[in-house]
Amino acid sequence: MEHLPLPSSLAEVESLIRALYQPNAPATIAQIQEVLQRLQKSPQGWQLAQSLIVSRDDNIKFYAALTVIVKLNRDSASLTDDEAKELLQNIVSWVLQSLVDGSSAFVTKKLCSALITFFIHFPHLWPLCLRHFLYCLDIGRSTPVESLDDALQTNLIVGNLDRRKLTVAIWFATTLVEEVGKTDMNSPKYVQVHEGLIKNAPDVSCLLARGFSPPQDSTGTKTQGDTLSCFQAWILYAQRVPSSSDLLVRPLRELVDYSINCFADEELFQATAELFSDVLTNYSSFFTEAHYNSLSSLFDSDWAAQHYEQTIHGSHQEDGISFGLLMLAYGDAKVHELMARIDDRSSRFLQRLSGLLAADGYLVGEDHVFVPALEFWSTFVETMIDSTYSDEEQTQNWRPLADQHLKTVIMNCWRKVQWPPAEVFAEWDSAERAGFGDARKDVADMLQSVFTLNGVSLLSFFADLFLQSVAVQSWAEVEASVFCLGSLSDCVSDNAEFDFELSKVFASPFFELLGETHGPIPLRLRQTGLKFIERYCEYFERHGEYLPHALNLLFAAVNDPVLGGPSARAISTLCSSCRSILTGEAGAFIRQYQTIRSGQALDSWAEEKIILAIASIIQAITDDSRRLEVFEELYAILRKDFERSVQLKAQPGILNLTDPDFLRGVEPSKPQVVPAVEEIALQIALRALRCLSSMAKGMQDVKENIVDLDSDSRPVPTNSSFTDIQSDITRLLAEVQRTFSYSGEVVEVICNIYRAGFSETDPGPFVFPADVVTDFFVQQPFETPRLGTLLSTACSFIGSLYRGPKTFVPNHLARLLPWVISLLQALQVPESDTEVTQNGIIFVDRLMSRYPEVLFQLQPQNMLEFFFLFSLKVLDGKEPLPKNAAADFWSGFITLKSEDPGLQETISNAMGHLGPLVAQSLVQNIGGNAARSELDKLSDPLKKLVTNQVRAQSWLEQALFHESFPSKQVTPQEKTLFLRKIVGLRGSRATNQVVREFWLACRGSNFTYVS
Amino acid sequence: MATNNTNFYDLYRHGSLGVSLTDALDDLIGAERIDPQLAMKVLTQFDRIVAEALSEKVKARLTFKGSLDTYRFCDEVWTFLIKNVTFKMDNGAHTVQVDKVKIVSCSAKRGDEK
Q1: Which of B7, B10, B17, B23 is most worth mutating to test chain A (most A CB atoms within 10 A of its CB)?
Q2: B2–chain A nearest CA distance, Å
Q3: Mean pLDDT in chain A?
Q4: Which member of B10, B29, B65 has the closest CB to residue A1011?
Q5: Do residues A441 and B61 lie in contact, with contact meaning Cβ atoms separated by under 8 Å?
Q6: Which of B1, B4, B5 best probes binding to A when mutated, by most A CB atoms within 10 angstroms?
Q7: Which residues of A touch B3 (CB under 8 A)?
Q8: Which one-letter DSSP state was computed for residue A804?
């Protein structure tokens, strides 16, 4: 940008300032700003301000005030006390001048800001700034600060001020507290400023008392509004002052009664309500008991009754809910007293608060007060719970009355959570719909709290409401009752009294109602009903008599476009939970699944859930041969899908989209968009894979079996009964992977299928023999997509091997290790695939921790050498996750020990060679190369090095004084001190802090900004 | 909830978002793209925004059950150690089981603001 020359005359400066406030191109404005800022910052800035302030143009006067602020902030240190006092007098005189020469308000306000800036820089020269300013306003001229000794008392001074001067004084007091409040009150630099401000509190009190009773003219309300804002700013400041001194709070408290009077003025009501709500919510201790009594009386007045009625029946959109929020803020501040007192006034107040949950209009969109009111009642319930369980000795005479209020609250909530008619809901926007849903969740939360107090009676209450609503066919009420009952599912145990209440619902025509697809039953009710069944799946375990009804209902809904997903999920939950009582029905379930499949196109996700459900039932069949028989029946269906997908890929001509089996490869939501045949084939395969994965999950045992890690005597699972089927599965998986070798998703789902068996302890069709799994891995070339997922699965496989018999583990590891390292070797740089790098290192780390001999017997030897240097390179790199894995690996390596003397010698030799390199890498990181977040992780190998390797000190010393050390900010003495501390701490936790401090020292003071 | 002019806890700086933000700020300072004062302001803003977002915007919920192993209340901070915990997500889609959970909770209003 081209710089403009500095102006040579005042007239030129003025013309630049005028141009600054005119519409101009951004580049022109930037140039003008640049030249004016240069002027402001120059030594002539003070004179410039003085010359500009006498202009008749408001913009120029404003700029003059701004220049004073800039100069004070930049050059105040260069002023002597006398010069500063002279400056103060000048600014005050300019403020006074602005009051009489017709300057705009923004000029006067800016000059007031300049005065505040002066106060912040010279608090010792202007301790009673407000009183002095008021005095100058009163006498109409600027006087030295010392003349304040002859001034009248502040209340008399403010009594003399006319409306204009009073307004300016209030602006001054507001800006004063706001600007000082922006400075750090804990910084020594500003301690005097804050102390000085607090000394002004009595004068503020006098000023605001007058501001609340201004001269009676047309602008009186405006002054009172300014006074309220100023009062609020001072209270907020007082709240932040640690252990607010009486000097500040007492004078402010004297103003509360004045401010309460502002409620009566309709124009001030909003601002006053906001002030009181804010202080009650955030600083309730500011008010004294007398203030609370005044507020309590106010709430009991006719005036309050009128506002309350308006809140309940008025339009929240137009009139707001300030009064409601004020009541709630008061309630929140006095919640314990309101609960514990049993007097009429408290009861009346609580009654009104519960009434806030019954305001006109639908939740959130029309009724804005419900959600904050519910928040209050949640607090109320929590308070009741606290008192009930902590004051056991005391009589709880408050409880009946509180319960009565709670009953009203629950009833009001039940009414409010009822869905509106579909045509009303259709008109809502997305925010209103989401808000309605969230408010229902809030109600559910509160009901769970109430359950702690009321227990079974709450369940009974909603069960009865359900029955009553069904009787009168009020579907919205039925839905609300079912929703409320469902919200309590997490609280309800398997106690008989709870089951009794739930049976009232399930023994009613509940299932018949929900099964009516063509009739008056709203979709919402059916949705909520399905969720309700799912939530109480444990109930069905105890009451199998209702299970067929529930499952029939759910299966009937599977093909519904809206209910399909929820019903499939409910089927899965219910079948998993009740698997042992459904084993006899496994065949029927499979036939049901086939029927659904052959009908309409079933959603893929829903199908997976149904398969999961059926598989979990099959898993519970105790007879092995029967289990295998049913398993094969289900598997055969999926097997055909696999074959079809492979066949279609090979022969695209066989595609027939009228056949539901081929339609499975087309997105059901977009049947008109037909993808390429190859894509359809892939989708059919993927869908079958995901179903097989669900089968594998469903077949997982839910019993908790004991795993004895040290035992070697556990027999190898004799999964001979599954051998054939396992061979078939692995052959199919291999064929699908070969056919769709480009698909990463195929690899991922295959990995999931293998994973499902890793955690199993008993034989099963997906608990593949270890050599089968090992074969699967080692056959995967570097070109396989999602290689990172494969490696991560291999890591899980190691964990599973460690849980099993130990005999063959080394053989499997010895086959897997070269495969893993060859994949790492194929990477051009470690960063080219961070997932492969990370999982590869984790794999070797896990292997080394239990079978170090496998690592050191790796052939060819150069593979091992490659890996060590690779992981050091990763430790030096910038990728956080591989770096963490490398830090873990080296932590393990440094502490590696073996009882075999030969192996121990190999380890020691390796450490002798690698130790200096590890030390160098760690020191480079700690010397500033590492990111801050990596320091704790990197401290681990450092601590291990210090405690486990006798030569650690010399290795670290060499690294610290090596020419490649990344920082020039630390001296040799600091490095030596760091080393001494690290060694002295002997690997204790304090090392992390020392590392952090050294890293900071190496990076420099610019990095100490984090607390 | 703390108000506009009040301080916010800096405990969320230790979460993954805060840690990543600090690393990013370090990188910017290292490259002399910003000065530390700005970084400090960004972190202060982060403290405020995280607290507000968690309080106002987060609507997801979960419930959990477990065995309370240890609890303490020290310096206005509650700490709970819970073992064998099962988390149930809001939509009931799935559960997550963990061996141990530590919950550290502070009052929404800081000690100096009550």
Answers
A1: B23
A2: 7
A3: 91
A4: B10
A5: yes
A6: B5
A7: 236, 239, 278, 282
A8: S
Residue ranges per domain, chain A? Answer: 769-892, 895-1011
pLDDT for position A517:
73
The answer, as to whether pTM is greater than 0.90, is no
Cis omega before residue A941 (within 30°)?
A: no
User: Are the C-beta atoms of residues A754 and A793 closer than 8 Å to each other?
Assistant: yes
Find, in chain B, the residue whose alpha carbon is nearest to that of A243: B112
How do residues A812-831 score in pLDDT, each as one tens digit?
999 999 999 999 999 989 99
Q: Copy the structure tokens of residue A238.
A: 């007082």
Q: Do A931 and B88 touch (CB under 8 A)?
A: no
Cβ of residue B94 closer than 8 Å to a chain A Cβ:
no
Strands B77-89 vs B62-74: parallel, antiparallel or unpaired: antiparallel
* Degrees, nearest 5: CA angle A775-A781-A782: 140
Helix ranges (DSSP H) in A21-153: 26-41, 45-52, 58-75, 81-100, 105-121, 129-139
DSSP states along A456-479: HHHHHHHHHHHHHHHHTT-HHHHH
The answer to whether A168 touches A99, Cβ cutoff 8 Å, is: yes
Q: Per-residue DSSP letters for A150-219?
A: GPPPHHHHHHH--HHHHHHHHHHHHHHHHHHHTS-TTSHHHHHHHHHHHHTHHHHHHHHHHHHS--SSTT
* Sheet of B62-74, strands arranged across: B62-74, B77-89, B95-106
Q: Which residue has the tokens 């270890």?
A: A770
d(C-alpha A722, C-alpha A726), whole Å: 6
Interface of B with A in 34-63 (CB under 8 A): 35-37, 39-40, 43, 59, 61, 63
State ipTM: 0.87
Mutate to test the interface with B, among A933, A934, A992, A1008 (most CBs of B within 10 A): A933
**Chain A: nearest CA to B53, how far in angstroms?**
15
